[in-house]
Amino acid sequence: MDIADIATSDYIEVDDGERLSKVRSIFERKNPRGIIVTEDGDYAGVIGKRQLVRSHVEDDTKASRLMVDAPKVERTDDVREVARVLVEGGTKIAPVFEAGRLWGIVTTNEILEAVLEHLDALTVGDIYTENVVTISEDTRIGQAINLLREHSISRLPVLDEDGYLSGILTTHDIVDVVVREGDKTTVGERAGDNERVLDIPVYDVMVSPVSTTSLSESVKTSVERMLENDYNGLVVTPEDDDGTVAGILTKTDVLRALTYTEEEYMDVQITNIKLLDTISRETIRTEIEQVVDKYQDMQVRHAHVRFHEHKEKLRGTPLIQCQIRLRTTKGQLAGSGEGYGAEQSFNVAKDKLERNVLELKGVRADEEYRGQLLRKLGEL
User: Fold this and answer.
1) pTM for this predicted structure
2) Could you give the 3-state DSSP secondary structure of residue 42?
3) CA-closest candidate to residue 135, choices 123, 121, 120, 151
């Protein structure tokens, strides 16, 4: 299936010189997935809500300062490939080109609506994100913004003092409060007002109660609820729904599932692929396969490699964080590390992943030995 019938020519665009106050106003009034930025009439980039969640950005900042690159796709591209580039680009919108000219856009919602009927075969437990970053009710907005940026995520479950789910904080909630508070102030009051907003506890901003899903619910049912209520994600609770958090299911998780392949080689998803410098996707895939081969009874269903760039640099090379997550027949495995440049950070993360694989192999071997010993004792 290609995106010819999914993409739309109805989109919002602004000039690269447009002021941030105008961009914020558009998101507040129309709530788009993203805005196309043009320079002299030509496509230049996109702005999403994640780019708006930044402190100390003045209203007269130009759109060009906040825009990010988004993957360009053709109207005839396959849905699975478009899903891949949206995940790897970390955006919810991609510009669609036809004959070399900007024709329109395609969004995550349009893709999910198109494939909805095919999602009934998957359960939430098959694709959800298990390790979740959470915050407490008294966490400050400024601290939450730092966590969202650091982990490249868009939502944070909020826990009460007993560790139970009490709310959810999203980039949309933060943008909404920033825009609302900004409307009350004049330009001269902006700096002080920003500090006040950053000091607000998330309890005052979070959404409660929280819409949840369970591990056994079908992905189709969960996505239908997201689309109907304009949610970008649902908190996953245990089957006994004891009020704790088991994970998160986001639209990005579903898009990532669309890229799963049954081909002989491992399917590797890379987030922030633009950070790759001296290392290629093929090298990354090969290196992970070599690690996995050390546990031959384990099969990888999907590999996700995420790079995140820090501000720190060494002789012009940025400090990069790399996280590798494997969804396997033996459970989920992960490794993370930092280094200057994508290749160095990947190698550190790969070494930690390898240690975890070997540790798992050793634990399974010990369990098998223990089982054999107990069986022999039972025969005595």
Assistant:
1) 0.68
2) strand
3) 151
- Whether 96 contacts 106, CB under 8 Å: yes
Beta bridge partners of residue 99, listed in sequence order:
none
Q: Which two tokens stand for residue 357?
A: 């694989």
Cis peptide before 209 (omega within 30 of 0): yes
**Look-up of token digits 């400024």:** 142
C-alpha 109/C-alpha 91 separation (Å) is 12
Strand order across the 331-340 sheet: 268-271, 300-314, 317-328, 331-340
Chain length of the chain: 380
* Residue 149 buriedness (CB in 10 A; 0-12 / 13-18 / 19+): middle
The pair of three-digit structure tokens given for residue 237, joined into one six-digit string:
């609770």
Distances (CA, A) of 207 to 101, 161, 231: 41, 17, 12
| Full set of structural domains in the chain with CATH | 13-107 (3.10.580.10), 122-255 (3.10.580.10), 260-369 (3.30.160.100)
pLDDT at 369: 47
pLDDT average per 10 residues of sequence, the chain (380 residues): 87 92 87 89 87 69 86 89 82 89 91 90 88 93 88 89 94 77 51 70 93 94 94 91 89 84 61 85 88 79 85 91 85 88 94 87 56 50
